[in-house]
Amino acid sequence: MSLWEYANPVKFLRLSSKVLPWAWGLGVACLFIGLVWGFFFTPDDYRMGSTVKIIYLHVPSALMAINAWFMMLVASLIWLIRRHHVSALAAKAAAPVGVAMTLIALVTGAIWGQPMWGTWWVWDPRLTSFLILFLFYLGYLALWAGIGNPDTAADLTSILCIVGSVFAVLSRYAVNFWSQGLHQGASLSLDKEENVADVFYQPLLFSIAGFVLLFFALVLLGTRSEIQFRRARALSLRGNAQ
Question: How many helices and strands (H and E) does the chain possess?
Fold first, then answer.
């Protein structure tokens, strides 16, 4: 069995209908465990106090905002190279979820930053590149909405996705590129010295798993909706032609 079989809309719909309930269920369960554990059963941080608990929303949403764009990049490249419509529709379906994740990350980051930095916003390299990524998300959606031909829209949004990936990379690694930024280092790292303490780390993993699974579920749902919308449109055009 080849992965490319699921570029067939019929096979994709069949498989996704089986996977979707599991993704929803596991995603909600993981997120519930992570948030309840993190907000109600972890201590205040010795330096940040209770504000540290926003980590359970900020870190997973920021992580998914960046990785959603990378997922869109992969799907867009598949479209440009192999012309599989399901991949283009998956990229389109991921964009509104990416917008929501980016907005959550920006808002929670501002709430977290105000008591830590004494301001809601600074033109820190990571924050600035993250804001630009948010604008790329909006531009991506606007491009899909503004072009009537679906294949042309998929082509142009794929090119935009490739360009925007520069800012996705900067959002992820800006702290490493510019050491003078105010934004703290990574909360999750292969270097144990950079990780948050275990008491915060363990519920954070559940929150991240919940965000990942819910993102996956929303993209599946959005892709299914796009396929069914195209089918309905094709049937309508065929009926009008007759």
Answer: 6, 0
Q: Identify the CA nearest to 213 among candidates 16, 31, 17.
A: 31
- Rounded to whole angstroms, the Cα distance separating 61 from 67 reads 10
pLDDT tens for each residue of 196-214? 667 888 999 999 999 999 9
pTM for the full model? Answer: 0.87
pLDDT of the residue at 199: 82
Say how far apart CA 144 and CA 241 lie, in whole Å.
26
Half-sphere exposure of 27 (CA within 13 A, CB side): 15
**In whole angstroms, what is the distance from residue 179 CA to residue 125 CA?**
9
For the chain, domain boundaries = 19-179+198-241
How many other CB atoms are there within 10 angstroms of residue 212's CB atom? 19
- At 149, which amino acid appears? N
CA atoms within a 13 Å half-sphere pointing along the CA-CB vector of 122: 15
Rounded distance, CA 124 to CA 170, Å? 12
What CATH number belongs to 19-179+198-241? 1.20.120
> Which is nearest to 3 in space by CA: 98, 97, 96, 74?
74
Residues 6+ apart with CB under 8 A from 113: 119, 120, 121, 122, 182
Alpha-carbon dihedral 76, 101, 214, 212, rounded to 10 degrees: 70
Token couple for 105: 């990350």
Which value, to the nearest 10 degrees, does the dihedral of the CA atoms of residues 145, 147, 148, 152 take?
A: -120
Q: Which whole-number Å values give the CA distances from 209 to 19, 107, 155, in the listed order? A: 16, 21, 32
CA distance 84 to 80: 8
